[in-house]
Design a protein that fits this description.
alpha/beta; single chain; Spore Coat Polysaccharide Biosynthesis Protein SpsA, Chain A; two-stranded antiparallel ribbon; 11 helices; binds uridine 5'-triphosphate; ten-stranded mixed β-sheet
């Protein structure tokens, strides 16, 4: 069954332990890449792909994410009073329309698979997009838009992938497309963090998915897997027994902002992509690096 992708899920209930102490009181999704919280970059990507409803799976200490996507009347009034119309317009543009967001609580961080399952009632019986907010995609065309185009053509389940170094495959979910060089290729195998030297390819899952609603029944029964967590990949492997999965190769850069190095690299890359910042930033960065 093909069906338009209207809703996207953003799991934001993780603890962000790799980024302590920054994430003790501030969710990692609210750390800024240049001047926008990480989560705003990912919501922008979803909106650019035509997503109409934004579903956040949150947990304790994440209220600030809800506030970020709400209107701030005092701030708006002050900006208006001071004649800061450009800033006001930008705020309005970044905020989803009333009723276009839903927030549901995971209650316990039992794993990504469990977080996705928590969105089941809000999604209902339709295919949906899933975006991991700590993974930023910078490239010529937004990753999710390419995936939705592929879904419009062929339906089924889709996973965004990108090539990683052969000696790093053990850190990622890896898919095999059997040697196909097509941008959209049928997935033949999927493995979560394969032991060193055993990965079937170097195509890593990038944190963008389009999934059919049957995933929820599988997640409901899913037992804990690696790390004692309910793993999305385990349920996707079960779904792959009855439904087709395609990989959509992203031809840009992917940054894992949940890690310190990925976050720093993302800030440099996004600054260099900004016309208003890049020229001066390049000079300052060169001075720091002694170039
Ligand atoms: P990560 O494993 O990258 O996030 O999960 P984490 O657990 O917050 O990070 P570390 O490893 O402790 O530093 C990928 C995404 O899934 C969400 C996270 O918020 C992140 O966006 N997630 C993960 C949940 O919503 N719930 C969970 O139980 C686990």
């Amino acid at each position: 069954m093909s069906h338009r992708i209207r809703k996207a899920v953003f799991p934001v209930a993780g603890l962000g332990t790799r980024f302590l102490p920054a994430t003790k009181a501030i969710p990692k999704e609210m750390l800024t890449v240049v001047d926008r919280p990480v989560i705003q970059h990912v919501v922008d990507e979803a909106r650019a792909a035509g997503i109409e409803h934004f579903v956040f799976v949150t947990g304790r200490n994440k209220q600030v994410i809800e506030d970020h996507f709400d209107r701030q009347y005092e701030l708006e009034a002050t900006l208006r009073q001071r004649g800061k119309t450009a800033e006001l317009a930008k705020l309005e543009q970044d905020t989803p329309k009333a009723g276009a967001t839903s927030f549901t609580r995971q209650q316990e961080p039992l794993g990504l698979g469990h977080a996705v399952w928590c969105a089941r009632d809000v999604i209902g019986n339709e295919p949906f997009a899933l975006l991991l907010p700590d993974m930023l995609h910078l490239g010529p065309k937004p990753c999710l838009a390419e995936m939705i185009e592929a879904h419009d053509r062929q339906g089924g389940n889709l996973i965004g992938v990108y090539p990683v170094a052969d000696d790093e495959t053990h850190q990622y979910g890896i898919v095999n497309v059997g040697g196909s060089r097509e941008k959209v290729a049928r997935i033949e195998a999927m493995v979560e963090k394969p032991p060193r030297g055993t990965a079937p390819s170097n195509l890593a899952i990038s944190g963008r998915y389009i999934l059919q609603p049957e995933i929820f029944d599988l997640l409901e029964k899913q037992e804990r897997g690696a790390g004692g967590e309910i793993q999305l990949t385990d349920s996707m492997l079960k779904l792959a027994q009855s439904q087709v999965f395609h990989a959509v190769r992203f031809d840009g850069q992917v940054y894992d902002t949940g890690s310190k190095l990925g976050f720093l690299a993302a800030n440099v890359a996004y600054a260099m992509a900004r016309e208003d910042i890049a020229p001066e930033f390049r000079k300052q960065a060169a001075a720091i690096l002694g170039l």
